[in-house]
Amino acid sequence: MDQLAAASGVSKAMISKVERGQSSPTAALLGRLSAALELSVSELLTGTRLGAAPAAVPGAAEPGGADRVHRVADVAQWRDPDTGYLRRQLSSPGFPAAVTEVTLPPGARVPYPAAAYAFIAQLVWVLSGQLTLTDGPDRHLLTAGDTFELGPPRAREFANHSAHDCRYVVVVTRKSTA
Questions:
Q1: Helix, strand, or coil here: 39?
Q2: What CATH number should be reported for the domain holding residue 105?
Q3: 16-53 tens-digit pLDDT
Q4: What is the domain range of residue 151?
Q5: Which helix (H) or strand (E) holds 104?
Q6: Integer Cα distance of 10 and 76 in angstroms
Q7: Which of 26, 34, 48, 56 is 20 to 30 A removed from 14 (C-alpha atoms)?
């Protein structure tokens, strides 16, 4: 825990509270923890590494069967207690990319440290609303239909300065370590 606290800048007390379920982490805190652990936020939330084979579930359908349908009521989601930011995990464990739908409420902003992007490639696709994506010193206003492929690791911020929800999809793959 000492190493995680030092690497993430998150106190041992807060890490312990999150582990015990006594505190709900914010998106920014998850970003710092995921960077320190070299996991994407999706990997941190699901406990499954990108592309890893999912655990066998007794009675589950065979590959290509009904288990490939993900009903909206069954999809895992997480809400940031500070901003109301909502993440719905669209892809399942074992899929080679993490595909996540995000709803960013009006006025919300979520910063992530550069280290969170050192080991992943990421594409953002805006479905509706307006997303202000700050990429290091550069700021981009993205609207419905726009995509943005994140480049080298930089501090980033996702913000919604409009009066309406912004919905976007994030596709994350793990970079090759070779």
A1: coil
A2: 2.60.120.10
A3: 877 777 777 777 777 777 777 777 677 667 666 655 55
A4: 2-51+65-174
A5: strand 98-104
A6: 25
A7: 48
